[in-house]
């Protein structure tokens, strides 16, 4: 198969769809790989590194969109990218369609087959291609939150770890999945007072088991969520209903009862965010303030640590990318129901139920396609 890897164009996005090592695996399996010039510059991988791995370097993204049978990216395609997609092309990347009607319409119009990393499942009920970036974003959420708590950044001037004789900061994590667990771990590491809320008792039991009394867990009732958020210095939004728009858990009204200078890091912003006042920001201008509460809502947090993130992401995506290249998407999805769960759009139809429901499209059951 002819595979294409364009350079990412989202604001401060330096990750790349394939590392040189992944290119080598593709070439080893008999595939041809086109990589846009300097696509790996931001992770310290040169054109020469890619050529050594067997890739052909091309000068423009247009050539890749024109020629490649499968396009492998990291971020959801931007307008100029989805406008270049065509029928019979396969797109393999993060999509996050539910909160993004314009992109969804663009992909539907393109006729392309679009498989989203974030809805591919595993036998344990996890999301194995979302997990590595959730680990990164969860860990980052505490470092960006700690910085935002500094006075010069609009925060209330609280050091998360406290010092002898002064209480630590209060960190509340809503959603105890992969992002939430990694956030809690980092916050505990800094010495903060940490509580994780979740609606899954199984998840809370797991966290209690692993971290013991060092971590407080709380069932995420409306009451408990409100009470803890009002007391918090830093709140991390980390909920997910796979593929669907994030539930809004804190309203604008409730926000006004939070402490002045407290901080929200809404990691769930790529699914629309779980605070009513959240809107996506960029690494260039990551925060804004509403009612004296600092909001950090960057939808591609792992792009900031692109080298770590790209290698972690490729470890998870490569087996699926290889299956798609080796067998073609139809056979690969027929052989693997978990990969089929990644199919979001095909030939002008929406094939993921939560996306169809959230955006008002007719749903086409993907099992009818394989
Ligand atoms: N902004 C960014 O750069 C990044 C964002 N993300 C996003 O972070 C979010 C979380 O991802 P993961 O941790 O991997 O998901 P996950 O599926 O591992 O965890 C989500 C947790 O939320 C819980 N939950 C669902 N509804 C809830 C509710 N109403 N109240 C309390 N808990 C609730 C679930 O029980 C689950 O434990 C996703 O939207 C994901 O796309 C992930 C990576 C990077
Ligand atoms: C998951 C996601 O949105 C990201 O890594 O940017
Ligand atoms: Mg994102």
TrEMBL record:
<feature type="domain" description="Alanine dehydrogenase/pyridine nucleotide transhydrogenase N-terminal">
    <location>
        <begin position="4"/>
        <end position="137"/>
    </location>
</feature>
<dbReference type="GO" id="GO:0005886">
    <property type="term" value="C:plasma membrane"/>
</dbReference>
<feature type="binding site">
    <location>
        <begin position="239"/>
        <end position="240"/>
    </location>
    <ligand>
        <name>NAD(+)</name>
    </ligand>
</feature>
<feature type="binding site">
    <location>
        <position position="134"/>
    </location>
    <ligand>
        <name>NAD(+)</name>
    </ligand>
</feature>
<feature type="active site" description="Proton donor/acceptor">
    <location>
        <position position="96"/>
    </location>
</feature>
<feature type="binding site">
    <location>
        <begin position="298"/>
        <end position="301"/>
    </location>
    <ligand>
        <name>NAD(+)</name>
    </ligand>
</feature>
<dbReference type="Pfam" id="PF01262">
    <property type="entry name" value="AlaDh_PNT_C"/>
</dbReference>
<dbReference type="InterPro" id="IPR008143">
    <property type="entry name" value="Ala_DH/PNT_CS2"/>
</dbReference>
<dbReference type="InterPro" id="IPR007698">
    <property type="entry name" value="AlaDH/PNT_NAD(H)-bd"/>
</dbReference>
<dbReference type="GO" id="GO:0042853">
    <property type="term" value="P:L-alanine catabolic process"/>
</dbReference>
<dbReference type="GO" id="GO:0000166">
    <property type="term" value="F:nucleotide binding"/>
</dbReference>
<dbReference type="GO" id="GO:0000286">
    <property type="term" value="F:alanine dehydrogenase activity"/>
</dbReference>
<dbReference type="InterPro" id="IPR036291">
    <property type="entry name" value="NAD(P)-bd_dom_sf"/>
</dbReference>
<keyword id="KW-0520">NAD</keyword>
<feature type="active site" description="Proton donor/acceptor">
    <location>
        <position position="270"/>
    </location>
</feature>
<feature type="binding site">
    <location>
        <begin position="267"/>
        <end position="270"/>
    </location>
    <ligand>
        <name>NAD(+)</name>
    </ligand>
</feature>
<protein>
    <recommendedName>
        <fullName>Alanine dehydrogenase</fullName>
        <ecNumber>1.4.1.1</ecNumber>
    </recommendedName>
</protein>
<feature type="binding site">
    <location>
        <position position="198"/>
    </location>
    <ligand>
        <name>NAD(+)</name>
    </ligand>
</feature>
<keyword id="KW-0547">Nucleotide-binding</keyword>
<dbReference type="InterPro" id="IPR007886">
    <property type="entry name" value="AlaDH/PNT_N"/>
</dbReference>
<dbReference type="InterPro" id="IPR008141">
    <property type="entry name" value="Ala_DH"/>
</dbReference>
<feature type="domain" description="Alanine dehydrogenase/pyridine nucleotide transhydrogenase NAD(H)-binding">
    <location>
        <begin position="149"/>
        <end position="297"/>
    </location>
</feature>
<feature type="binding site">
    <location>
        <position position="75"/>
    </location>
    <ligand>
        <name>substrate</name>
    </ligand>
</feature>
<dbReference type="Pfam" id="PF05222">
    <property type="entry name" value="AlaDh_PNT_N"/>
</dbReference>
<comment type="similarity">
    <text>Belongs to the AlaDH/PNT family.</text>
</comment>
<feature type="binding site">
    <location>
        <position position="15"/>
    </location>
    <ligand>
        <name>substrate</name>
    </ligand>
</feature>
<feature type="binding site">
    <location>
        <position position="203"/>
    </location>
    <ligand>
        <name>NAD(+)</name>
    </ligand>
</feature>
<keyword id="KW-0560">Oxidoreductase</keyword>
């Amino acid at each position: 198969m002819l595979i294409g890897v364009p350079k990412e164009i989202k604001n401060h996005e330096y990750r790349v769809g394939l590392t040189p090592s992944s290119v080598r695996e593709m070439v080893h399996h008999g595939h041809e790989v086109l990589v846009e010039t300097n696509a790996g510059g931001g992770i310290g991988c040169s054109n020469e590194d890619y050529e050594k791995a067997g890739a052909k370097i091309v000068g423009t993204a247009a050539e890749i969109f024109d020629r490649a049978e499968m396009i492998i990216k990291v971020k959801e395609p931007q307008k100029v990218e989805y406008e270049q997609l065509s029928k019979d092309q396969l797109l393999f990347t993060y999509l996050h369609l539910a909160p993004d009607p314009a992109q969804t319409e663009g992909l539907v119009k393109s006729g392309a087959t679009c498989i989203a990393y974030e809805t591919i499942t595993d036998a344990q009920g996890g999301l194995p291609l979302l997990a590595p970036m959730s680990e990164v974003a969860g860990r980052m959420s505490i470092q960006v939150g700690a910085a935002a708590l500094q006075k010069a950044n609009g925060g209330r001037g609280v050091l998360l770890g406290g010092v002898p004789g002064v209480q630590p900061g209060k960190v509340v994590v809503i959603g105890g999945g992969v992002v939430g667990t990694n956030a809690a771990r980092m916050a505990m590491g800094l010495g903060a007072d940490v509580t994780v809320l979740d609606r899954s008792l199984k998840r809370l039991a797991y966290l209690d088991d692993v971290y013991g009394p060092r971590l407080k867990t709380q069932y995420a009732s409306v009451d408990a969520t409100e009470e803890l958020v009002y007391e918090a210095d830093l709140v991390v939004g980390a909920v997910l209903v796979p593929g669907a728009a994030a539930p809004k858990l804190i309203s604008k009204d409730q926000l006004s009862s939070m402490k002045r200078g407290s901080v929200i890091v809404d990691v769930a912003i790529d699914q629309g965010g779980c605070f009513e006042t959240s809107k996506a920001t960029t690494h260039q201008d990551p925060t804004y303030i509403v009612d004296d509460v600092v909001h950090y809502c960057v939808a591609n947090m792992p792009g900031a640590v692109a080298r770590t993130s790209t290698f972690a992401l490729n470890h998870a995506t490569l087996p699926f990318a290889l299956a798609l290249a080796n067998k073609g998407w139809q056979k690969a999805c027929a052989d693997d129901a978990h990969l089929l769960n990644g199919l979001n759009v095909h030939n002008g139809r929406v094939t993921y139920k939560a996306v169809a429901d959230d955006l008002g499209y007719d749903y086409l059951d993907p099992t009818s396609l394989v």
